[in-house]
Amino acid sequence: MKAIEMQARPIALMLSVFIFFLLAVNFFFLNIVNYNLGGMEEKAQEQQSKMVSVSEKLNAEREKMTFATQVLDVRDILSTFGRSQGGLTSMDLAYLIVSESRKHDIDPYLVLAVIKTESSFNRNSVSDKGAMGLMQLLPGTARYISDQKEDVNIRRADELFDPVTNIKLGIGYLSYLMDKYDNQKHAIIAYNLGPGNLRKKLQSGSGLPQVYYSKVMKNYRLMLSLSNKA
Question: Which residues are tagged catalytic?
Answer without folding.
Answer: 118
